[in-house]
Amino acid sequence: MRYDVAVIGGGPSGAVAARILAEAGLDTVLLERNLNNVKPCGGAIPLGLIEEFGLPSELVEKKLSHMRARSPKGRVIGMHMPNGYVGMVRRERFDSYLRNEAKKAGCTVLEGLMRSIERKSDGFVITTLNDKLPQIEARYIIGADGANSKTADELGFPPNELKVIAMQQRFRYSPAIEKFSDIVEIWFDGEVSPDFYGWIFPKADHLAIGTGTEDKKHNIKTLQKRFVEKIGITETPYLDEAAKIPMKPRRSFTGERTILVGDAAGLVTPANGEGIFFAMRSGKLGAQAMIGHIRNGAPLDLYEKGFRKLYAPIFFGLEVLQSVYYRNDRLRESFVAICADDDVKRITFDSYLYKKMVPAPWSVQMKIFSKNIYHLLKGS
Ligand SMILES: Cc1cc2nc3c(=O)[nH]c(=O)nc-3n(C[C@H](O)[C@H](O)[C@H](O)COP(=O)(O)OP(=O)(O)OC[C@H]3O[C@@H](n4cnc5c(N)ncnc54)[C@H](O)[C@@H]3O)c2cc1C
Questions:
Q1: Does the C-beta of 164 come closer than 6 Å to ligand 1?
Q2: Residue 52 to residue 232: CA distance in whole angstroms
Q3: Residue 16 maps to which CATH number?
Q4: What is the CATH number of the domain that holds 71?
Q5: What is the per-residue pLDDT across 40-89, written as a single tens digit (0 to 9) for each?
Q6: Are 48 and 353 in contact (CB under 8 A)?
Q7: What is the distance between the alpha carbons of residues 338 and 179, in angstroms, rounded to a whole number?
Q8: pLDDT tens by residue, 314-323
Q9: In the chain, fewer beta carbons within 10 Å around the N or the C end?
Q10: Is the CB of 246 under 6 A from ligand 1?
């Protein structure tokens, strides 16, 4: 079968890209290795994403406007988002909904693991491990196959750097766990993660608890076990899941007739490991650029340039934050202390919800700057 575009990987980035291409009338195929895939993920998404993609409310099983940040010494800062919330989704339902939207738009959805890609003069030939699938031919390819993207390898993209290994366990609610059911909790604690953070995310019928690290010296299972013990949970999880998170964009994610989107391109923000927003946004921007390229000959790299222009400041800011404050427990203690400031809370939430750098008055910027200097000196 020959298509205009083959999208490889049916997570949020691939499913969104495939839907937009199909809606534009392009012959599109979405290849997903496992249509029942349960992507290991906290499933926390910002209000801005829910609004932009018109996600139905039944997909968002919790809308949480209260958060707690906990320091290594156990200092707890409560935060409230008066104008928004963090939405909690369950990836098995979420991904399947997005793929279904692509199908409704006219995209062909196939199950099969991409095994190889051969470049021809006018496109590509894709082979899969599914014997029942015919060879797929496509003029263009979107690689949306996650952090360990084989598409990127096959097409010779520069490597995905800095991968956090993250683990999560799901616990069904019991009377002892019920108290976490309406609040997002984030732990900045070297015993839980030496360079990332631990999270407690409530879902409709379970609690998702997880942690991550980039540091190969640490065993992720040991960190997770310690975290669960520190929280005081003695129940047995009904699901353990783990996967890598790339936290640095690849040096380039546009090639000839090809682009990478989402985790495959490395589009997850440092410090908070947020990837669903950037997966769906890159899927959308990538698909739009590809439509412009196919229809009007517009350069395909408008996608990458546009993405970097919009989000490079956020990636840079969070990279600095992580490299400065996640280094040791004294600095983490200082970081949580800074989060107690009402202006810091407001700016953080406004930026999180809509991914826009929110300008603050000079007086507020100076106050936050001075607090940072004070706490950095104290923590170093
Ligand atoms: C433990 C953990 C917790 C996280 N929590 C959050 C969170 O709370 N909020 C948030 O925003 N982000 C979170 N993330 C990050 C988020 O999960 C990713 O950034 C997001 O899933 C990226 O979407 P994607 O579509 O680019 O890739 P993926 O969701 O990884 O989808 C890739 C798809 O490609 C398929 N695939 C792979 N190889 C092939 C192949 N060869 N052929 C065909 N198909 C293939 C896979 O089956 C998969 O369905 C978390 C990540 C982890 C690991």
A1: no
A2: 38
A3: 3.50.50.60
A4: 3.30.9.10
A5: 999 999 999 999 999 999 999 999 999 999 999 999 999 998 889 999 99
A6: yes
A7: 26
A8: 999 999 999 9
A9: C
A10: no
